[in-house]
Amino acid sequence: MYLEKLQLLNFKNYTDAELEFSPSVNCFAGNNGAGKTNLLDGIHYLSLCKSYFNPIDSQQIRYGQDLFVIQGTFNKNEAEEKVYCGLKRNQKKQFKRNKKEYQRLADHIGLFPLVMISPNDGELVTGGSEERRKFVDNVISQTDNSYLDTLIQYNKTLSGRNALLRSDGAGYDPDLLEVFDEQLVRYGEIIYRKRSEFLELFTRLFHTHYEFITGNAESIALKYESGLSSTEFAEGLRRARERDYHLQRSTFGIHKDDLVFSIEEHPLKKFGSQGQQKSFLIALKLGQYSYLFEKKGFKPLLLLDDIFDKLDGLRIKRLMEMVVKDNFGQLFLTDTDPERLEKLFGEIGVPAKIFRIDGGTIR
Ligand SMILES: Nc1ncnc2c1ncn2[C@@H]1O[C@H](COP(=O)(O)OP(=O)(O)OP(=O)(O)O)[C@@H](O)[C@H]1O
């Protein structure tokens, strides 16, 4: 699967643009603020129906205009698939595949899978556990339709339980709490099982990528931490009851799960250099890529935004060698320096299509 063509109308700093891509390597080169990342974001819309960077759709309409349109032509199994995304100010986003409008955007997710690696992803390493749970949940949802529904049910039940714990100063209703607990256990055990299965395969893929990029330079670990790994969910809830009542919130469950990252047996967040953290992050995203590939049976698009910053020359070369090899598909990457791109791909011996971007125009 690859993207043949992208057309933009009044999308961010593009008035009217049309690009035809190579099925292998495509580079967007230009100065800061030229519009390189905006092109990646346009592609992201076609795949996941939204911006990677900004959740407010109307802010992607070019200043002073009333609508944006993004159109893409994908080639999937040798057939052309046309994807359309249009937004008029103050109206609902329209999303179509082969001219047929979707009723539920969720039905589109996963048809044209994509992995983006961007400087914004640092939060995954340095931020709170919620970022890492979101990452895990997003990857699983792209390959398992029922996962997201179960998670929504779990979160609804959790809100209900927390509201109950907050509501009654004189003491909670134990029967009602019991009902919430039964539901939490039902949904939570499914989520725990699916996260554990996901992480078993994902961790292996992640390690392979990290070792390749760094040439085995440092020992690292990724561990799934969940209260459910040592205690049955129902038992954990029972034990936490008194504490939950005093704190007025639920302190045990899969909403507390985390991924623990370490380097040479120390927390990566505190002890990893910026380059090591970035290498870790890239390996996580490439692990996501390989996981999607393995589960879907075809290659997602790979979008690399500003990937070269903070990586040494050796790691850059190894990374590029890896992503242009057979097990990766179509690649889009941005850089401020077109000469660096030409030199890099020249050395690797892979032809790259380089688009020069300048103030929302493309050469
Ligand atoms: N809705 C909009 N209408 C018009 N221009 C916009 C809109 N949203 C963003 N821009 C412009 O897009 C430009 C940013 O583009 P982008 O993030 O793609 O830059 P870039 O080439 O990736 O730069 P860098 O190298 O700094 O990452 C900015 O000049 C910004 O003002």
Radius of gyration: 23 Å
By helix and strand content, what is the structural category?
alpha/beta
| Ions, cofactors and other bound molecules | adenosine-5'-triphosphate
Mean pLDDT: 93
Percent of residues in beta strands: 15-25%
Please bin the fraction of helical residues: 40-55%
Number of strands: 15
Strand order of the largest sheet: 2-1-4-5-6-7
The CATH topology annotation of the largest domain reads as: Rossmann fold
Q: What is the global morphology?
A: globular
Number of domains: 2
End-to-end CA span = 25 Å
CATH H level, superfamily name of the largest domain? P-loop containing nucleotide triphosphate hydrolases
Total number of helical segments?
10
Subcellular location: Cytoplasm
Protein name: DNA replication and repair protein RecF
Function: The RecF protein is involved in DNA metabolism; it is required for DNA replication and normal SOS inducibility. RecF binds preferentially to single-stranded, linear DNA. It also seems to bind ATP.
Pfam families: SMC_N
